[in-house]
Design goal:
Blueprint (H helix, E strand, L loop, with lengths): L4 E5 L7 H8 L7 E6 L1 H11 L4 E3 L9 E6 L16 H16 L5 E4 L4 H6 L7 H9 L4 E5 L4 E4 L6 H7 L2 H17 L8 E3 L15 H15 L10 H4 L2 H4 L4 E4 L2 H12 L4 E5 L5 E4 L16 H23 L1
Parallel strand pairs: 1-2, 1-5, 2-4, 3-4, 5-11, 7-9, 8-9
Antiparallel strand pairs: 6-7, 6-10, 10-11
Helix pairs in contact: 1-2, 3-5
Amino acid sequence: MTRPRLALVPGEPAGVGPELCVRAAQRAWDASLVAFGDPGALQRAAAALDLPLQLVAADATASPGILPLVEIPAPVAVAFGTPDPRNAAAVIASLERAASACLGGEFDGLVTGPVHKAVINDGGIAYSGTTGLLAEQAGCEVVMMLANDIVRVALATTHLPLRAVADAITADGLARTLRIVDAALRSDFGIASPVIAVLGLNPHAGEDGHLGREERDLIEPLLGRLRAEGMHLPGPLPADTAFLPQKLRDFDAVLAMYHDQGLPVLKYSGFERAVNLTLGLPYPRVAVDHGTALDLAGRGLADPSSLFAAIERCTQLALTRAARRAAA
């Protein structure tokens, strides 16, 4: 494979997703991009940015200013920054059809723009996030990882209230998460013997049980069992020092126990280039690491760096998977 074929989903039509895709369409990539979504939203974004955009059939060839498109029309033409719940089904259909095309082998990876969860739920669709939607569609268990050029952070738990985190961390759940992360680092990133730093749950990783016993009673015994299987798992480590640059050099990824334990560090270290990966799917999926930014939509102020990084990362992952298949 020399040029992976990637499905590109703009996301919420009233947000910045369509204009970010228009900006991406102005460049030549090492992958062939095909958008899945509403043509009207893309054309309105191109007009607002004063950029050329020609939408062509999905089997056509992309080039700067020309974007192949699988049309999934939104029933309501929206104004920038004003989403309409009546478009919720079209937004979900764009994600599901693009993912289905990846599952069917028509595409080598999926890149997704920002989606507005509340608007989709207001449209009568129970939706907690694209990660869960794709996992359910593919029938597999997945792990959320965010990455930039400095660090990769996987999450043991995702969007939970802090008081619920400790009860959600189990030996079976951690083992499943670590196995998915280890397998993805091997298959998608080409790392032969990945090192995954595992953070403790409590301050100072429990300080030998004086600040909580989850490390001694649960995390440490589990890591011992997984190390016996051949996995490389330093930890449990205190979260306040695990991200020091000299330590990160020895790690291929970090597993944080909860959302705000690891992601503030990642976003501070390079928010513009941060992306969201779904590990464990049969295909690479990379998303932008920001929201719909309704206040910026249509103003030409939205930074496309995260989408550009997502396209680049998805291209790399697709190539790595293809090389492994060829070598098998």
